[in-house]
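re the bet — no i am not wrong, look at it urself. input seq straight from the record:
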Amino acid sequence: MSSAQTRSDHVFDATTAGFETDVIQASMETPILVDLWAEWCGPCKSLGPILEKLAGEFNGGFRLAKIDVDAEQQLAAMFGVRSIPTVILIKEGQMADGFAGAQPEGQIREFLARNGVVPLEAGDAPVAETATPETAEEAINRIQQAIAAEPDRPELKLDLALALMRAGNVESAQAELDALPANLATDARAVRLRSQLDLARALAGAPSIDVLRQRVETNDSDWEARDLLGVRLLIEGDVAAGLDQFLDILKRQRDWQDGQAKKRLLAAFATLDDAQLVGTYRRKMASLVF
């Protein structure tokens, strides 16, 4: 039986104990919008009713998981929450998108539509998306047109920075990120992008993955090669293997480059969608640091 406390058919309180079942596994069939909030948070009180209204209106197009960060501190830490409210969309077991701060209803509707979350008619059941995903280049063109039409919407510039990073245009993404107003600089997506950019810049001029593997095999204590190998593995999709390289440095030479292995792990955690994997490696890191 689920451990979530149901507020309505489409809104429930998520807990650490039931998170894997109620959120991660459930998102394989229905998108889950996670609302991280607290009783003392004024903006949370304005955002929460909007999200709950939309959850009802969408009729199962998504479910809203409410997480009280004071009561569920482990979940808040797992998501790396720096400010509330923070909203994260989880689809098919992965973090798909998110935003921080109270947003007007119109922008939240756009956020949902941009991520393929649509209302269901009565009697409908969630179905797998069949539309071709938007490419990074298509996203850049769409967002640039939106900025031209509505230049006073700074959140569109964050969308553009994210699309530029997807396209591999690191310098342009950094320029857009640096130009964001202060209220967006701490948005969950901006924080994640900043970490992705830091990792991408680390590989400027770095040897190939095969060369780095050879260096590590030849010299088990070649910390620079092990560090760059970790970054390459991470970016190329072998996430656990990359994180293991940083953990090895942290375990054996934790002060190397002023604690760079720990910094790499924290940057990686901020970029990853797999909450369970991040939680596992956070605990491994903590066991070495504390």
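see?? Strands lie at 5-6, 11-13, 32-37, 63-68, 86-91, 94-100. told u. also DSSP finds 14 helices and six strands in the chain. so pay up
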